[in-house]
Amino acid sequence: MKVSRYPEPILLLPYIGKWTALAGLIAALSGTASAFFLFSLDYATHWRETHPWIIWLLPLAGFAVGWIYLKFGSSVEAGNNLLIDEIHDPKKVVPLRMAPLVLFGTVVSHWFGASVGREGTAVQMGGTLADQLTHIFRLRHSERRIVLMAGISAGFASVFGTPLAGAIFGLEVLAIGRLRYDAIFPCMMAAIAADQVGMAWGVHHTHYAISAIAPITLWSVAAVLVAGIVFGLVGMGFAKATHAASAFMKRHISYAPLRPLVGGVVVALAVWWLGTRYIGLGIPVIVEAFQQPVAPWDFLGKFAFTVASLGSGFKGGEVTPLFYIGATLGNALAPLLQMPFAMLAGLGFVAVFAGAANTPLASTIMAIELFGPQIGPYAALACVVAYLFSGHSGIYRAQRVGLLKHRLPPVARDRKPPSV
């Protein structure tokens, strides 16, 4: 083994300089793209809310987006899963067209009234723009993996205003039970800087206030454990229902643009029957869940609308709908568990996401960033329990199993998880 004449801290300086520069470029690109996306989303949402008749054009909008993806976006149709696959097994740089296509598809989905999120768009734009640096700087496969992870972190952080959670999300989402510590510095730098870039462009994020947090007692811990189990089961149910709906549509409708057209008809008719409460991002309802009791079936309404929208092929993401589902579910569970409804809404907000995405650490940190440090112990407990009870599947099909979540019965234990 060759011994350098310089101490190890000195040898790290070029590494720090290189990845600080790359992370800064990724942050500038991703933060700017996310800012433009959020402004576009605000405009589209306001226009839809002031022109409710537009919901009847949702089927045509879905057909248009499906046709554009069929003609120009077949190579990037996999979205977030394509990014995760490229990190695991690098093959070729993600086509730049992914960024404008997912931006257009998501804004159109929200404009006309689909129930989808926004993190998928920000993550795909961040990862795609970051990956273009591979050609410019002639990066190796190992460096390209890190660049992609930093892009994912930057996109997540800038769209939610949670830089620490964004950094950990980029490390944690790739594989159940494992973190990629070789990318921790670039992901952290990119996430923090991208959040700052977004704010420099004038982005403002929603504030969620938890008015009361129960003291830590035997009862409160038991209540959070029970709630965590429910959150995990709902997160698992959402992931499986979305995958099942997508598979059903592909099996019965071979022509891709017709899938969102059919889904758009279903969503439009449901809005005509039930109203607009369950479409779009649903931020007002999420805020309401922190302020007062909401209808106990709200989480089921958002669950059904989002599964129908995503399962039929509308573009967007799953995370903000999961926040809605979790917050309203927590609000409904609060009186049953004799806990403050704002506190349970906050725990559901992050824990359903933790279970569906298999990201308990990022979700716990997100709770602390959004709601304050006092929620930390409860958030950690709820997110970990939800993670354990959500099984080994999730909303991201490309996510691999690095380590099983828990010991299984002897028959199941013999089945080794796929290697990462």
Automatic annotation (TrEMBL):
Task: Read off the SUPFAM superfamilies from this record.
Answer: Clc chloride channel
Nucleotide-binding recorded as keyword? no
Q: Which UniProt keywords apply?
A: Membrane, Transmembrane, Transmembrane helix
Pfam families membership: Voltage_CLC (PF00654)
The way it spans or sits in the membrane comes to: Multi-pass membrane protein
Q: Does the keyword Transmembrane helix apply?
A: yes
Classification via CDD domains:
ClC_sycA_like
**Which InterPro entries does the annotation name?**
Cl-channel_core, ClC, ClC-type_chloride_channel
Q: Which residue ranges does UniProt annotate as crossing the membrane?
A: 21-41, 53-72, 93-112, 146-171, 216-238, 258-275, 378-398
Q: Which locations, inside or outside the cell, does it occupy?
A: Membrane
What's in the GO CC field? membrane
GO function terms (MF aspect): chloride transmembrane transporter activity
Q: What is this protein called?
A: Voltage-gated chloride channel protein
In its UniProt entry, the species of origin is given as Duganella guangzhouensis
Query: What is the phylogenetic placement of the source species in the record?
Result: Bacteria, Pseudomonadati, Pseudomonadota, Betaproteobacteria, Burkholderiales
